[in-house]
TrEMBL record:
GO terms for biological process: phosphatidic acid biosynthetic process. One of its GO terms (molecular function) is ATP-dependent diacylglycerol kinase activity. It comes from Exophiala sideris. The chain crosses the membrane at residues 232-250, 256-277, 289-310, 350-370. Keywords: Kinase, Membrane, Transferase, Transmembrane, Transmembrane helix. This is Diacylglycerol kinase. Residues 51-68 have a biased composition (Basic and acidic residues). It comes from the Eukaryota. The keyword Transmembrane applies. Residues 1-110 are annotated as: Disordered. GO terms for cellular component: endoplasmic reticulum membrane.
Length: 400
């Protein structure tokens, strides 16, 4: 018997979008079609899922989008707490949303100890695939860190702050004061400087031709070297040449104080320049305003001590050469300037503490300029004593 009534319409099937919690629980299962009545009954039986509260990253987004769970990128991203070797720090936080993160963690490339970078194919873009150089680029020294073994083991003591090198640098100033106070003449010191130069110079040239000898040289004297000196020449050579020129070709007091400026002003400029140079302007490459100010202050204090205390109480000695001292606690304008201004010879003259203050300030200024000026890329150990001696000699020749 046929049915005469109208055929009922096919019921409309609605498949609601699963919530993030349902996705995490049944992400790998099959979702069958659910009718409206069945979905209504399921909502009455089970409590609504708790909303997901995500950390806001400060970016401006639509309010409706903030309620949705954000998916993570499939490519590994180095966060601020992730180190270069691919490991995360102890305080790093990772946002992990259930059901949206891969089951297998992504393995990041790790840097080898010799400076090369290992790139392993894991199906993702490696954060190191464009890196051509490694941790050697982060050295404070102009040359790559790792050429001297002691610099790798004692990075803060030797490579960063250069403590052994600075101790040697400063100690030479104290030896100079001792010899000056004892009345030792420059003619007695310069032969020893030439003898040391005759030994250190050929040794430094020899090590550049024999690799095994160079490795032994670096192993023994690496604490006193900079990494630029591995392929270059030792700074002691320039130190010996600079001190020899200052003592041999300039008066006794000028040569002595120039060595003190080399010993103490250069060390002060290097120390304070590394500590506070990032906070001041850069005057030229490798020279900051902080280092130059440190050299100026140290030079002024050295001038005040030498011209005001040591020199008046030391000497003259019987074997002093003629014209051994240029500063006699008196400064005067040149005679040509006095004639041009119509002054008497007694005018334009300062003595006592006023002359000492002017002499100390000029000493600090000359020390700062000699430390700052670059003369054809020569080493500071050569340029500082030569420029300081020449500057002080010219100043006292004009106003002494």
């Amino acid at each position: 018997m046929s049915y005469q009534g109208p055929v009922p319409g096919t019921p409309r099937v609605i498949s609601p979008s699963p919530t993030p919690s349902e996705t995490s629980e049944r992400q790998d299962s099959y979702f069958a079609p659910v009718t409206r009545s069945a979905a209504r009954d399921q909502r009455h039986k089970s409590p609504p899922p708790e909303p997901i509260h995500e950390e806001k990253d400060g970016s401006s987004s639509d309010s409706s989008l903030e309620k949705r769970a954000r998916t993570r990128s499939r490519s590994p991203i180095l966060s601020a707490a992730t180190y270069m070797n691919g490991t995360a720090g102890a305080g790093s936080k990772k946002r992990r949303i259930s059901g949206l993160t891969p089951k297998t963690p992504v393995t990041k490339s790790e840097a080898l100890s010799n400076g090369d970078v290992s790139i392993e194919s894991n199906g993702h873009l490696s954060p190191y695939d464009r890196v051509k150089k490694s941790w050697r680029e982060f050295s404070r020294s102009p040359s790559p860190l790792g050429l001297i073994p002691l610099h790798r083991h004692y990075r803060t003591l030797i490579n960063k702050h250069e403590i052994p090198r600075k101790v040697l640098h400063v100690s030479i100033g104290f030896f100079t004061l001792k010899y000056y106070h004892a009345g030792l003449q420059a003619t007695s010191i310069t032969p020893w400087l030439l003898g040391a130069l005759a030994i250190i110079g050929p040794t430094d040239i020899l090590r550049h031709h024999y690799e095994r000898f160079n490795r032994f040289y670096i192993r023994v004297l690496g604490a006193l070297m900079r990494e630029t000196e591995v392929d270059g020449y030792n700074g002691v050579i320039f130190y010996l040449v600079g001190t020899y020129i200052a003592l041999q070709f300039f008066p006794k007091d000028i040569g002595t104080i120039s060595i003190l400026l080399l010993s103490w002003c250069d060390t002060a400029a290097s120390t304070f320049g590394r500590l506070y140079g990032r906070y001041t302007i850069r005057l030229r490459r490798g020279k900051s305003l902080a280092g130059s100010l440190a050299a100026f202050i140290t030079g002024a204090l050295v001038g005040l001590f030498f011209w005001g205390y040591l020199a008046p109480r030391t000497g003259p000695f019987p074997d002093d050469p003629p014209n051994a001292y240029m500063y006699h606690h008196r400064l005067s304008l040149p005679g040509q300037v006095k004639d041009l201004l119509g002054w008497r010879p007694s005018n334009g003259v300062i003595t006592g503490n006023t002359a000492l203050a002017v002499m100390s300030v000029c000493t600090g200024l000359i020390a700062s300029l000699s430390e700052l000026i670059d003369v054809w890329g020569l080493d500071d150990n050569l340029t500082i004593p030569v420029l300081s001696s020449a500057g002080l000699w010219l100043f006292l020749k004009a106003f002494g």
